[in-house]
Amino acid sequence: MTNSSTVKVRTAGALKTGVTNIVKDFQAEHGWTFAASFTHAPDIERELAQGSCDADIVGLMDNAIGHAVEKGYLAPRRVPVGSIQIGVAVREGADVPDISSMHYFTEALRNADTLIYTTAASGEYMVGVLTRLGFIRRFEDKTIRYASGAEVNARLAAGKASREIAFGVATEFLANKNIAYLGPLPEEIEYPSPYEFASVKGRESDAVSAILDFLATEKAREIFAATGVN
C-alpha cells in the first residue's frame, strides 16, 4: 500500500517521543510515512470544537477523546496506547531522594532545596497533592513553576543546588538525557493518564485506517512503553 497524500497526526506533547519513534517504524514497515505535530492538549480540543483542526488523526487523553466522539468531532474508533504517569525527577548527578513510599516521599519534599513543576495540568495536580499534604503554603518560597514541561526540564538540568526535585509527565523526563527520572509518584497519590488515538470525523481513509491499525499493534505498544507510556 502506498500513500499519495500525507496523513497528519496531531497529538499532545506528552506523546511526542513515542509518536516520533512510531513514524520511523511505520515507514520501515509500510514504505511511506505520516506527518506528526505536537501541541498542548487544550489547543487540540479547541481546534476540534471550532472545526479548525487540520489533522486526520489526533492523540489525547481518553476522556477528551470520548468527549470529542460524543460531540461528533471524531470517528467512533478509539485506539488506546497506554497511560502516562506524573513522576519525579532530579538533575543527572544530583542527590537522589527515596520516593518509594509516602513517608519517604514527604521527607524528600521537606528536605528539597527547590520544587519545580508546571502551571499546566500536571502542575495543577501537584498543587492538589501538596495542598492535601498541608505543604502548599509551607513550600511557597522554594517552589518554581513554568508553563511547560520543556521549561521545567531546562530549569532542572541547569540547576546547581544538590536537592532540587521536579514533577511532571514521565515521557518528558525520560526524553532528556540531563535528567534522572526516579519513577512515578507513590501509589497513594499516583495519577495515570490514559491516552488514545482517533480519526477526525470526515477524514477517514485507507491510509488513516492503516495508521490506526499500526497504533493498535503490540509493536506500537512496545515503542510507546520505552518512552514512558505504559
Labels describing this entry:
230 residues, alpha/beta, D-Maltodextrin-Binding Protein, domain 2, nine-stranded mixed β-sheet, 9 helices
Description:
This protein is of the alpha/beta class. The chain folds into two domains: 107 residues, D-Maltodextrin-Binding Protein, domain 2 (3-Layer(aba) Sandwich); 106 residues, Periplasmic binding protein-like II (D-Maltodextrin-Binding Protein, domain 2), CATH 3.40.190.10. Helix content is 39%, strand content 25%. Strands 1, 2, 3, 4, 5, 6, 7, 8 and 9 form a nine-stranded mixed beta sheet that branches. α5 links the parallel β5 and β6.
Q: Which helices and strands, and how do they pair?
A:
Layout: E1 8-12, H1 16-30, E2 35-39, H2 41-50, E3 57-61, H3 62-71, E4 79-91, H4 102-111, E5 114-118, H5 121-132, E6 143-146, H6 149-158, E7 164-169, H7 170-174, E8 179-184, E9 192-199, H8 206-215, H9 218-225
Parallel strand pairs: 1-2, 1-3, 5-6, 5-7
Antiparallel strand pairs: 3-9, 4-7, 4-8, 4-9
Helix pairs in contact: 1-9
Strand-residue proportion: 15-25%
Which word captures the global form?
elongated
Could you say what the CATH topology of the largest domain is called? D-Maltodextrin-Binding Protein, domain 2
Q: How would you classify the helix and strand content by structural class? A: alpha/beta
Characterize the quaternary organization of these chains: single chain
State Rg.
19 Å
Summed up, the helix count is 9
**Main β-sheet, in a few words?**
9 strands, mixed
Low-confidence stretches: none
Q: What is the CATH class designation of the largest domain?
A: Alpha Beta
Order of helices and strands: EHEHEHEHEHEHEHEEHH
Portion of residues within helices: 25-40%
Number of domains: 2
Q: Report the end-to-end length measured between terminal Cα atoms.
A: 30 Å
